[in-house]
């Protein structure tokens, strides 16, 4: 079949042609970028945190009694939590990973006295724990050692404690010390201005509290008890349980802490799975919304093609009957409309490819999204093309049922 008669017929229906072309182009651009964003969000939500999330929970203590002793109560609480049957370990912690709230610090491989262009500097999340911190979190130490009791000191508003050692994540180690971090010196304001600390261990992975941070894999464990640097009455604990016993031990932990000291409020009892769910709630919601938009657009585009081709078939009843009378087979009639639709959708795809990359450049500029991978556009184009052919098949099949006698009814 020659394309010229098909093009001539299409040019007699310019309005319908333009509407379908624009609809296909816009659908392709939105679908490609939406699928890209959805996959980015799914990857983000499912990335591992490095913790034993399924068996972890956190609980907060807030003292109100006039004689409330934070350092003494903190140690009593840890002893009580670790004594509960089914508890693997427990630690104090200043902030919870993935919780969207915490403390960060700038770290350098050289002191401030060294010119800025000669020293590396990286941001890191800070988790203050004791010697049980790594085991409680369930992180894996891949180099060096864990903290011991002698490493841990207390920290208050006026006294930074005796901080000498830290454990950092592999991602942070790769940035600051590519050749190996254990035994190297870090400089930060944690032990005092421009104070040095030694890296004694490297853990495989631990994420920062802020799930949208571009340095989310950069974190550091600091061996210190927070004895009221910011709040002289509150403390937070992280508890790891045996598999399958988390929920029952959460209730027992709340009861146990209430027995240890009645001059405080025990609150904020949450599993880490719940913390993760709340932090990634917007990402999951966006995935659902974009998925709905994709299927809605594809459905509207498909129905638009069905409606337009049905209209064209109705207007060409006599023409179809004449062709049938001249010997055209049913296959020829169906092929005509499918080729016609192929041309229309093809023009829409060509325009849609330009819109797809233009939309992606706009998202990169305003929302810091990465560049669209090359294969999204051809896969999206093929999907829209198949959708168009599927949509036209029904009206084209109805056109094949037109009798040759129709050609003579109005003569």
From TrEMBL:
Keyword Membrane: yes
Pfam families linked: FtsX (PF02687), MacB_PCD (PF12704)
Domain MacB-like periplasmic core: 25-252
Top-level lineage group: Bacteria
Residue ranges annotated for the ABC3 transporter permease C-terminal domain, each copy included: 293-404
Transmembrane annotation, as ranges: 16-39, 288-314, 335-360, 372-393
Compartment(s) of residence: Cell membrane
Keywords: Cell membrane, Membrane, Transmembrane, Transmembrane helix
Region described as Disordered: 101-121
Keyword Transcription: no
Membrane-related topology note: Multi-pass membrane protein
Coiled coil ranges: none
Chief place of localization: membrane
Family designation: Belongs to the ABC-4 integral membrane protein family.
The protein, known as: ABC transport system permease protein
